[in-house]
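Annotated sample (chain length 276).
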Amino acid sequence: MKFETHLLENPLKDFVESIFYFKGFNPNHSIERVVPTGHVFVIFELDEMERSTFDNETLKPNGVFNNVWVSGNHNNYLSISAHQDSEMLVIQFKTSGSYPFFNVPMHQLNNKVIDAQELFGPEILELRKKILNQEAVTDKFKIIETWLLNRFNAGKTPSDELVTILEQLRTKPVVNHSDIITLYPRTQKHLIDQFKKYFGLTPKVFHRIFRFNEILQQIQAKERIVWSQIAYQFGYSDQSHFIKEFKEFSGFNPQEFINSDYHKDETNFFPLDREG
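Output written by the structure step:
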């Protein structure tokens, strides 16, 4: 498989987590579960294959996407198709970085996967054509970078106060949530409204998502995991609360997760049918 990432410079590196391209991806499954990470994505399909989303319970298709689509912030897991010989280019925005490139408040994209034309109009299909016409991956990245720079609206960047709160939520335990919120100089309602506008989700939900992803990082590839210790380490009131939240974000209870060897996979994508 070919996999390349683009080295970002200012101002984009402060708003975009990564731009990456892959070709020739051949997974050993056809459906995978994606857990929430706190990021918004713009995804370019470059192989003429339709992608699907699925009902999380029945795994019946509930959406079909091609060309270019946007995945907003999710507070639940998402079931998506995985295809043989895939070729895609993906923009992953930083949690604090997507709003300056969009024409809608970020909460309007919560828990949605949307055809990119609904947000960017026909220009997004023209952009995809330009990408397809370039052989060199570096030239594909240059086209994306130029488009992002042209869309960037510096007047829509979040305040330093908001970004500080977000970074505190990312790095501090959930038990410190109330103390972090009090750092904001205005009301809690104002903070929530601003978070929804600029980032999508509320501070509390982001804090829980950050904690969950840190847990996935901690348990990755470990041979022995004691869930009671994990629950205590990450500030859950009891083990039942931990199990409930783990299942809310992943769809699995912790022991199912380990029995399926998901702790040995990537930390955010888990195959549901390894036979393909």
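Annotation: The radius of gyration is 19 Å.
Annotation: The first helix runs from residue 117 to 120.
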